[in-house]
Amino acid sequence: MKRSDWRGGGSMGSGTAIIGVMTESKEHLLSLSLDELTERVLALGMPKFRAAQIMEWVYQKRAASFEEMTNLSKGDRALLGEKFAIFTSEIVRNVTSSDGTQKILLRWPATEKSPEGGLTETVMIPMDDDQCDNFGNTVVTHRRTACLSTQVGCPVKCAFCASGLEGLKENLTPGQVVEQALRLTHMLPKEGPGHRITNIVFMGMGEPLANFDTTVAALKTLMAPWAFHISGRKITVSTVGLPPQMKRFAELGLTATLAISLHAPNDELRSQIIPWAEKISITQLVDAGKYYFEKTGREVTLEYIMLDGVNTLPEHARQLATIAKLLRANVNLIYYNEVPELEFKRPTGQTMFAFQNTLRSAGVNAHVRKSRGRDIAAACGQLARQDKGKGVVQVTVSGA
Ligand code: SF4
Question: Which of 216, 303, 350, 373 is the S-S candidate for 97 at Cβ 3.0 to 4.6 Å?
Fold first, then answer.
């Protein structure tokens, strides 16, 4: 049995306060690189090193306001507070699963396209693992993976996905993507095991490569030593497959992993569940994936959501194996998280592992991804659809 404990109110039990929504006149600090902030502080008559101090306060010391930056003069703090906003979102829901997965629903400032403020989801997936080092010692790793959104809604409208049900509302800015990671960081302990985000996946709401410049700018901040300092190898950008953008991404020389959300092993089936696949063939995706490997030396990964009876037959596994071998790609098999409004079903474990075995027998490295946060509307976009605009709610769901 699951027990849900709903507590409405104006403050977060996790200790994360709701911090002011950006006013139109303020620039979003989290959209800026260190160089850009340096230009701004010089223009305000402050010393150049002020920019590095501010970034350290925001990203290392977790300051949520300029008032907390005590090694800055009072005058500078006041001026910075007039010019810049750090947090711009409001946390409208904060849900924790029995497996520790945490999902937050953020509302962004109102815009013309989203007069009530766009809603996006952000997820933290904790994973503490025992591993063996080169000397046979047991090492405990504390992986904290943040799953970020890049758009409000999604233009792709995959048939099985809650995020795509209403199409695209608007693109997020780089600062809004970075803010999601910072919101999650503020929910982690300040020190000790699991105190920082170690991995990032761009697998939340939206198609990251359809909001290309934002995705790249946010990625750079996530990797920057003055901000999150996460290795590109620990960042995965997942795309439904836009060949020109995939090639452009390859040319940037970033070390991120590119994952193609394939979800079907032939064009006919793919275009039935992913509308954009009508115009983009698997052959084009394979071509772009090979280009990514040539340019970066990194193989793409194939993501495959298992929709029971739709793309889970043995012949599908054999077709998928052929594609994976062309790309030398690992395949991640993902359990479908059911969406109440949609008729797709989650397969059994037996179906998942039989499919994996067929791939492995064909020489493909295939993994069944663990299902996380199933008790907290885990399917992408589900929480946003559930929101009834009732204000701040914190939900803890625990096995009982
Ligand atoms: S699965 Fe991804 S690409 Fe497809 S509609 Fe959902 S968010 Fe968009």
Answer: 373
